[in-house]
Write a structure and sequence with these properties.
1% strand, EmrE-like
Length: 428
């Protein structure tokens, strides 16, 4: 009689294998479930594989002890990609057909070893302090070099154009290398930015006329009145109520500037009036800036404002100072200091002007408004103090006391204003 035919469900006879063969055969379906089965089946297969005795591996011992990223699972010392434990329906079509296991990168860090923070990340105050130092340093150097240029080249309209021109070239080169990437602009944005740039140009030129006419310390003392014009414009132009405490804090500012002006040895109405026009111009620049809020970052906004302001400043410079420059202005300056020093001074003063304005903006983004306001007051103190020391400006006792009172009033005003804005932010 013939033996009964084996059923389809009964296993086919297999040749004799080594004792580790059942474990290896059981491991292969477990690996297969990683690409065709669900996440639960894949994890279960991995667990069964990990519990069994070690399989013979062609990899050396160093490879089997490879690094693990973020606690990832290992199969024979190789790291699984996160996609391998996803359900099959969520995997891409090509990935579900064939998945390869890749060894970890040779430069990977050992498991559980976290990357230690750097010194600047651990102590952010060091970075903030560096920004403040560079802000003060660049501002002091700019004011000193600017005044030295006016001592042998008294043409503030032309120098103002050079300031903006060097800054524009700097912005164009930054855009060319993509630091930062240039933001697109259209006619609507130009209409919004033009009033801001116009006020910026007028304030910049009149400030330089004042710096060229009177002492740097006195010009900055007059410019300490800028908060007074800001408060007046907020109250009477924008129609917003200014708290009484702010008005009272401005009283010592007005008193101090008046005391300093009465006994200032370098006083001239031309320098005083231009410094006051500069205060008004920068006040309206702030007003128009609030109306021209855009999604553009501050670096790109300042770049476009500088370009527009340069175009605005060129015609009056050519009309007012052009004929004198062509006749004797440029030749006299070159005869006094030489061509190399003259050109290098103009380039450096323009570079310092642009950099200190950019650093001031970056510092404002890193600190609270109150800290920035106090820093701005201290910056003015540094500029006045260093200008007196370097240029040897003689000041009377009344001028010194008036300057101190004005600076103290600006500090009080900045503190109260910053506290009011902070309370509004918290309540909002």
């Amino acid at each position: 009689p013939k033996p009964p035919a084996p059923s389809r469900s009964s296993p086919a006879p297999r040749p004799t294998r080594s004792p580790q063969a059942p474990r290896a055969a059981a491991a292969m379906p477990a690996l297969g479930t990683l690409s065709a089965g669900g996440a639960a089946a894949g994890v279960a297969g991995l667990l069964r594989l990990r519990r069994g005795p070690a399989l013979a591996s062609p990899l050396p011992a160093a490879a089997r002890a490879g690094a693990v990223h973020d606690g990832a699972q290992l199969v024979w010392g190789r790291q699984l990609r996160p996609a391998l434990v996803l359900p099959a329906g969520l995997l891409p079509l090509q990935a579900s057909k064939r998945l390869t296991l890749r060894p970890p990168a040779a430069s990977a860090e050992p498991a559980g070893e976290a990357k230690s923070p750097g010194l600047l990340e651990k102590y952010p105050a060091i970075t903030t302090g560096f920004f403040f130092f560079m802000w003060y340093f660049l501002n002091v150097i700019f004011n000193i070099l600017n005044k030295k240029i006016y001592n042998y080249f008294p043409y503030p309209y032309f120098v103002s154009v050079i300031h903006l021109l060097v800054g524009v070239v700097y912005c164009l080169l930054s855009w060319a290398v993509g630091l930062p990437k240039r933001a697109p602009i259209n006619a609507t944005l130009l209409k919004l930015l033009f009033p801001v740039a116009l006020c910026h140009a007028l304030g910049h030129v009149t400030s330089n006329v004042s710096f060229a006419t009177v002492a740097v310390s006195f010009a900055h003392t007059i410019k300490a009145l800028e908060p007074f014009f800001n408060a007046a414009a907020t109250q009477f132009v924008l129609g917003q109520t200014v708290p009484l405490s702010l008005w009272l804090s401005l009283a010592p500012v007005v008193l101090g500037v008046s005391m300093a002006s009465l006994t200032e040895l370098s006083f001239s109405w031309k320098g005083f009036i231009n410094a006051m026009i500069s205060n008004i111009s920068f006040t309206y620049r702030s007003i128009y800036s609030k109306k021209a809020m855009t999604d553009m970052d501050s670096t790109n906004v300042y770049a476009y404002i500088s370009i527009i302001a340069l175009v605005v400043c060129i015609p009056p410079a050519l009309i007012i100072e052009g004929p004198q420059l062509m006749q004797y202005g440029l030749n006299d300056a070159i005869a006094k200091v030489g061509m190399t020093k003259f050109v290098s001074d103009l380039f450096l003063v323009g570079l310092f002007y642009h950099l200190y304005n950019q650093i001031a903006t970056n510092t404002l983004e890193r600190v609270a408004p109150l800290t920035h306001a106090v820093g701005n007051v201290l910056k003015r103190v540094f500029v006045i103090g260093f200008s007196i020391i370097i240029f040897g400006n003689k000041i009377t006792t009344q001028t010194g006391i008036g300057t101190c009172i004005a600076i103290a009033g600006v500090a009080l005003y900045s503190y109260i204003k910053a506290k009011i804005e902070e309370e509004k932010r918290v309540s909002f």
